[in-house]
């Protein structure tokens, strides 16, 4: 039996979460639900603060249904719903209509973060009551919305016999989605991903523990380093520069490095067009009145001292001021007016730019502004420009502080990851989003828990520690070469699959392929020794070659072309093209698979109208391809490049996208499914007796926080479950996966100090 439910909560925001379940000021104001077969909805209302009410889940319920159900599940967990945990233990599942809609529509951009109001009419439902949304938009708290209006919104009006509102619309959408999922062969895939959603809900609820003392210490170090870089950089700004140079400004840095003219503004005097003189403010002064009707600024005393006679000054002849000299307010020249005006300042060229770095922006005289991003600064480093190292360091520091620590802007507003740290317990409850990418991979926000820099690049991850203090450890389980393994699964290329089974180092394999047709022909065994043996006499060169091929591997797996790969690896275009050809010959099944995907997309493509690059409405195409698991992917065409237009084509699909989506998406799907299976293990063991918690997933790895007493068991279970992809998908989906999915597990006191874990 299914149970549809929805919650309306108090809406205080804190730590970048609106209506946060972790904010003690909030509570569930209204809860609505409907069991399968019921003809009316039920509800309960809590007008005053109450964080103890929970949804009753009967033992006969096997499926919980909601729209953006993660929000509701987090709230039930926050209010201590024991029956939810028991429901999971019985094998209960969830169905999020928002997530299902996204998957059923092949991750189409229009289905990202879809709303119930937009989705329900597609399945025969109705739109919501506008008054409630209007009150929320006006900042009215949920508890202040009239009860009758809120309940009508949640479960329908009395005229609808309380069988409407969000609850009925969600049920209508759910029933329509089930039918569509069966027709499209996506039921199993959606079920597995829903368990993955339960896993990420658990991760968000558990959160990440932050060592705020360590974060504060590191922030001070970074700020001191940034100040030193600023001092060094400012010494290179011309002394006659009339404005405050901003090293974070693309315009300023482009003009300084490549030459150009900056338009700046300062407040200064200006000519009044009406008078032809400098503009002045209006002003008046009290002058003394003379008997001829004129006035003078000289006081009678000053006049007497100079001329001796003051009879020309007019006096009051009667009244309270009798005998006093008369004065009159007269206009006088006021202070000079100032206003912001444009001025130009030109910098001499230090070095010539590459025209491909030109942006759409222009300098003060209409010349191009060139990019000064980190990659370009690295490329410019070879030109011996003295301040570029400091500039690159400053850019890195600015990004690290502003993204992962905290910074206050000119308006006094704070930003950065540390603004998401709860003050009472030093936890971050980041968001893991399931419906925001075109590939079905997860994204993360507030803060982005999937974009922490590597430990050899930054100490950011050192602040993430165990909630068990010295008695706990962080555990990271990471798939090895997941993109290549997924390529083997999808393409079934015999040589690629055999290499995966043989645990070949693919980066060394590519080094072998790169030199195969040259005078320096080498074997795989030599490449392995050259690139990985630190005692090899030419190890440094071998390591460099392997690094290039590692970048090549990553870029190729995600569909990059030869020019892009050459630029990223530092190899010549000819080297890159030769290596790509050698790889195509080595793994022909990959080429065939990519061609099959392209054929499927073109064959299924249907026309649609959209604005082109020139702002005009044009006809494009949208095509589809379905993975062996049932996941659908969609691509749209774009304006054809010049060479294709010469052949009569007006639109073309993007080849890198068609190569990228299946690999990236399927890899993400495997990880999500294994997150779900791992979560089931945590449910089964009651989080290992409350001593271990799932807390994050980063693309191809899963983080856990565990007490040392259960660390080895948790690590072993993670490795076993994550490596079970072949067995699981072969049995459940009838796939023929013949390659292993090796997982490496590391443990340590924080996420930056991890060492390899080995089963005893």
UniProtKB/TrEMBL annotation:
SMART domains: POLAc
Domain DNA-directed DNA polymerase family A palm: 457-710
Compositional bias annotation for Polar residues: 436-451
Domain of life of the source: Bacteria
GO biological process, one term: DNA-templated DNA replication
GO terms, molecular function: DNA binding; DNA-directed DNA polymerase activity
Location of the region described as Disordered in the Swiss-Prot/TrEMBL record: 436-456
Gene3D superfamilies hit by this protein: 3.30.70.370, 5' to 3' exonuclease, C-terminal subdomain
Pfam families in alphabetical order: DNA_pol_A
InterPro entries hit by this protein: DNA-dir_DNA_pol_A_palm_dom, DNA/RNA_pol_sf, DNA_polymerase_A
Subunit annotation: Single-chain monomer with multiple functions.
Protein name: DNA-directed DNA polymerase family A palm domain-containing protein
């Amino acid at each position: 039996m299914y149970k549809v439910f929805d919650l309306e909560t108090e809406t205080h925001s804190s730590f970048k979460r609106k209506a946060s379940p972790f904010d003690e000021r909030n509570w569930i104001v209204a809860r609505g639900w409907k069991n399968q077969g019921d003809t009316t909805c039920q509800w309960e209302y809590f007008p005053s603060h109450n964080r103890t009410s929970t949804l009753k889940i009967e033992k006969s319920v096997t499926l919980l249904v909601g729209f953006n159900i993660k929000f509701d599940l987090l709230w039930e967990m926050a209010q201590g719903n024991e029956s939810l945990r028991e429901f999971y233990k019985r094998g209960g599942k969830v169905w999020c209509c928002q997530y299902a809609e996204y998957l059923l529509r092949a991750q189409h951009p229009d289905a990202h973060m879809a709303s119930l109001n937009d989705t329900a009419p597609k399945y025969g439902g109705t739109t919501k009551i506008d008054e409630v949304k209007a009150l929320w938009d006006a900042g009215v708290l949920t508890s202040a919305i009239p009860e009758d209006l809120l309940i009508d919104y949640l479960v329908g009006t009395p005229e609808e016999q309380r069988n409407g509102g969000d609850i009925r619309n969600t049920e209508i959408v759910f029933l329509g989605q089930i039918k569509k999922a069966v027709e499209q062969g996506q039921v199993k895939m959606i079920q597995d991903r829903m368990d993955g959603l339960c896993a990420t809900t658990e991760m968000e609820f558990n959160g990440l523990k932050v060592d705020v003392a360590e974060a504060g210490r590191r922030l001070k170090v970074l700020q001191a380093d940034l100040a030193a870089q600023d001092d060094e950089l400012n010494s290179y700004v011309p002394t006659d520069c009339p404005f405050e140079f901003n090293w974070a400004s693309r315009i300023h840095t482009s003009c300084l490095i490549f030459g150009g003219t900056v338009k700046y503004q300062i407040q200064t005097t200006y000519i009044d067009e009406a008078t032809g003189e400098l503009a002045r403010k209006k002003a008046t002064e009290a002058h003394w009145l003379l008997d001829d009707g004129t006035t003078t600024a000289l006081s009678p005393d000053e006049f007497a001292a100079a001329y001796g006679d003051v009879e020309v000054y007019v006096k009051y002849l009667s009244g309270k001021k009798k005998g006093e000299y008369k004065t009159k307010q007269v206009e006088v020249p006021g202070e000079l007016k100032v206003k912001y005006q444009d001025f130009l300042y030109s910098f001499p060229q230090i070095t010539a730019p590459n025209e491909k770095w030109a942006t759409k922006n222009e300098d003060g005289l209409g010349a191009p502004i060139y990019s000064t991003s980190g990659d370009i600064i690295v490329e410019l480093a070879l030109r011996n420009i003295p301040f570029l190292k400091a500039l690159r360091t400053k850019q890195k520091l600015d990004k690290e502080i502003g993204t992962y620590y905290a910074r206050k802007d000119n308006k006094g507003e704070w930003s950065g990851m540390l603004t998401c740290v709860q003050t009472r317990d030093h936890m971050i409850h980041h968001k893991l989003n399931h419906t925001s990418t075109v590939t079905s991979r997860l994204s993360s926000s507030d803060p982005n828990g999937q974009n922490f820099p590597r430990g050899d690049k930054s100490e950011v991850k050192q602040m993430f520690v165990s909630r068990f203090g010295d008695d706990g450890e962080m555990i990271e389980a990471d798939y090895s070469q997941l993109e290549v393994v997924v390529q083997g699964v999808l393409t079934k290329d015999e040589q690629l699959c055999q290499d995966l089974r043989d645990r070949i180092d693919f980066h060394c394999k590519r080094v072998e392929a790169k030199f195969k047709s040259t005078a320096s022909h080498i074997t795989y065994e030599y490449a392995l020794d050259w690139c990985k043996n630190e005692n090899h006499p030419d190890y440094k060169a071998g390591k460099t070659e392997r690094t290039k091929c590692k970048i090549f591997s990553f870029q190729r797996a995600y569909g990059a072309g030869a020019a892009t790969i050459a630029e990223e690896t530092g190899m010549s275009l000819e080297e890159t093209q030769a290596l790509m050809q050698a790889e195509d010959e080595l793994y022909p099944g990959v080429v065939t698979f990519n061609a099959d995907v392209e054929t499927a997309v073109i064959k299924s493509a249907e026309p649609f109208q959209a604005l082109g690059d020139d702002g005009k409405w044009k006809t494009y195409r949208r095509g589809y391809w379905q993975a062996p698991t049932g996941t659908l992917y969609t691509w749209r065409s774009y304006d054809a490049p010049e060479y294709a237009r010469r052949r009569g084509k007006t639109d073309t699909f993007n080849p890198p996208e068609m190569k990228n989506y299946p690999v990236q998406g399927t890899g993400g799907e495997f990880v999500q499914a294994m997150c779900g299976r791992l979560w089931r293990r945590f449910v089964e063991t009651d989080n290992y007796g409350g001593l271990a918690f799932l807390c994050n997933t980063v693309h191809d790895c899963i983080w856990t926080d565990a007490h040392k007493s259960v660390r080895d068991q948790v690590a072993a279970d993670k490795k076993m479950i994550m490596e079970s992809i072949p067995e699981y998908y072969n049995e459940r989906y009838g796939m023929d996966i013949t390659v292993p999915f090796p997982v490496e597990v590391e443990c340590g006191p924080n996420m930056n100090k991890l060492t390899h874990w080995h089963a005893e």
